Amino acid sequence: MNANGRFRSISTTGRSSGAADWASAVTAVKVAASQPFSSILTDEFWEKETKKDTFTAADGAQQTVDFMHLTQDRADYCRGENFTVAQLSFRGGQTMRFLLPDEGTTLERLLADDTVVGIC
After folding, report:
1. 5-55 pLDDT tens trace
2. What is the pTM of this model?
3. What is the DSSP letter of 41?
4. pLDDT confidence bin for 97, thresholds 50/70/90
5. How far is residue 79's CA from residue 119's CA, in Å, rounded to a whole number?
6. How far are the Cα atoms of 14, 62, 85, 100 from residue 110, in angstroms, in the given order?
């Protein structure tokens, strides 16, 4: 199974018949991401821990932004080659995963790599 098929399987909890193509999977993600979501994190970020720092975009542009910081003794994360996946939990049982490319690695490069999709 290629990366797109694994993505569909993961994003649809295995319910995809494989008939959907990559474009429809991306469209489904865009539609889901556009829906309002309101919940409370299990472990909230503390405002006093938010600090300004430099964010570097994939094109090299830099800007100063607020970085939230949270330290957990039971954090859900996974380290891979050129990336980290971090997961935050919400009080209603929902979770959100973040694919965080290492500096110098683009998100597009990670998503094109068959070994990244579904590794964590």
Report:
1. 444 444 445 554 444 455 566 676 677 777 777 788 888 788 888 999 998
2. 0.56
3. B
4. confident
5. 10
6. 21, 21, 12, 10
Six token digits for residue 69: 């910081």
- In the chain, DSSP assigns E strands to 51-56, 62-67, 76-80, 83-89, 95-101
Tokens of 24: 């429809």
Could you count the other beta carbons within 10 Å of the beta carbon of residue 83? 19
pLDDT score at 21? 52
Rounded to 5 degrees, φ, ψ at 37 are -135, 130
Calpha distance 74→71 (Å, rounded): 9
